[in-house]
From TrEMBL:
Record keyword Transmembrane present: yes
Originating species: Microbispora bryophytorum subsp. camponoti
Keywords from the named record: Membrane, Transmembrane, Transmembrane helix
Protein name: Integral membrane protein
Transmembrane region(s): 114-139
Transmembrane helix among keywords: yes
Species lineage: Bacteria, Bacillati, Actinomycetota, Actinomycetes, Streptosporangiales
């Protein structure tokens, strides 16, 4: 019974995982479209030298520097941006901004959307399979321990008679 319930649970989790993965993919597509419309890549000119670099989330070395840029609405902006350590004052770096020219993160791309959907879509069934496999294993161990105790109890009754008969 436990094995059957585990198999049915994994199948249900697989269906649920696929549904959640499809939902996550749809949400990701909407986020992509929204961010592609609201974020713009602009050229920023460095007005200062890049500070001591540190590793970014992506693993590349980045530093900070003062820069100026023109927002999509035409206004001039200035501020601190992230820049590669090899850049110097006067060079151009591409940054992402929102409609008002405020620095924004890079818009979500299709790769990020697909990875998020696959992670959700496979994570749910794999997690459920692991939990259900643990349940089946624990149930088996309990049943085997109980069977050994019953066998031992029955053997203690039979063993004295078996030795008397000379076997």
């Amino acid at each position: 019974m436990i094995r059957l319930a585990a198999v049915l649970g994994v199948v249900a989790a697989l269906v649920f995982g696929v549904m959640l993965g499809m939902r996550e993919y749809g949400d990701g597509l909407r986020t992509e479209a929204q961010q592609a419309h609201a974020r713009h890549q602009v050229a920023a000119t460095l007005t200062g030298e890049v500070t001591t670099p540190r590793l970014s989330v992506a693993g590349a070395a980045v530093g900070h520097a003062q820069a100026i840029w023109v927002a999509p609405d035409g206004t001039a902006r200035a501020g601190v941006i992230e820049a590669p350590p090899s850049r110097h004052a006067g060079e151009t770096v591409h940054i992402w901004t929102d409609d008002a020219g405020v620095i924004a993160p890079r818009p979500q791309d299709r790769e990020t959307t697909v990875v998020a959907a696959l992670t959700v879509g496979t994570g749910v069934p794999l997690g459920a399979a692991a939990i259900l496999a643990l349940l089946v294993t624990c149930t088996r161990l309990v049943n085997q321990r109980r069977a050994r105790r019953v066998w031992e109890a029955q053997w203690t009754v039979v063993e004295p008679m078996w030795r008397i008969n000379g076997r």
